[in-house]
Structure formats: structure tokens, C-alpha cells
Amino acid sequence: xxxxxxxxxxxxxxxxxxxxxxxxxxxxxxxxxxxxxxxxxxxxxxxxxxxxxxxxxxxxxxxxxxxxxxxxxxxxxxxxxxxxxxxxxxxxxxxxxxxxxxxxxxxxxxxxxxxxxxxxxxxxxxxxxxxxxxxxxxxxxxxxxxxxxxxxxxxxxxxxxxxxxxxxxxxxxxxxxxxx
Length: 180
Known about the structure:
Layout: H1 19-25, H2 28-37, E1 40-44, H3 53-63, E2 67-71, E3 77-78, E4 81-82, E5 96-99, H4 103-115, E6 120-123, H5 130-138, E7 142-145, H6 149-157
Parallel strand pairs: 1-2, 1-5, 5-6, 6-7
Antiparallel strand pairs: 3-4
Helix pairs in contact: 4-5
């Protein structure tokens, strides 16, 4: 099942991906599985500034019960969690990497994720990381491209409706993401 099929239709959010790229990197079932099965999410580029997009996303995901792992060159803590300079420095299992870095840095992040055995990588909305997504897929990672993990979680958990957004999901029932 790809975007546009099933009970929900595709939200393109002005994406510039081709239909084939959307099918490969924005698959609805893949997104739902990642949100359902991931518990620990490393956020590469998480800012200590809560007003930045990465801060919104980290705060939201933490509030929703995910363990957040800040990956940034700045030592210290963000959202009460210890920061790590790179993915290889994290001393425990990570389920998913969420990337808030410019596109030209994303190929390196994908290679680091594959090298340490992280199974999935998510390149945030509006990050031009097509090459990195292709590289991640070739290394065996599940890759999501040009989607916001916070918006997708809100969309599938039903809370995005509360803000008045059209999630393009037609249902009278509030969806719940089962936790692993």
C-alpha cells in the first residue's frame, strides 16, 4: 500500500518528490509502523532552543512517551537528556534517527546510522536529502523523506484534528497508535 491508498489519502504538503519517491519514502504503512514500533529516537540537530522546529518536535515526541536522544556537537543536556556528538557515541539501542540537518550533511548521518545498526532514518519535512534517502535505503535502512514526524504522529494519533488541520483522514473514530 502506498500513499493515496487505504483509509487515508496522501498529504503532499507541497512536497517536491516524484510519485516514485513518495511511494518509496512516504509510504503510509511504513510511517505508521515506525511510529508504533519505535521507542527511542535520536534527533540529529536537536536544538536547545525550544522555539526552533527541532525543539518543538523533540518536546512533542518526549511528551508522547518516546525516549529522545539529542545528537549535537554541544555537550550537555537538552530536554533533560544527555547529548551525544554523533550516533556512534550513543551507548544504547536506538530505533529511529530523526534528522534536522542540511541535505548535504544527511548522507554522512545515513552512513553513521547504518554503521551502528540503527534500522530506520527519518529526514524531516523540507530537508532536501534525496541522495541520503537513496543511500540509506541501499544500506538497508528504512527511510522516510520530506515528512514531519510530529505532524505524522499527530495525524495518526488523532490529535492533529484538534488544531483544525485537515489530515485527509475521513473517520468518525479517533485513531490510536499501539505502543510496542
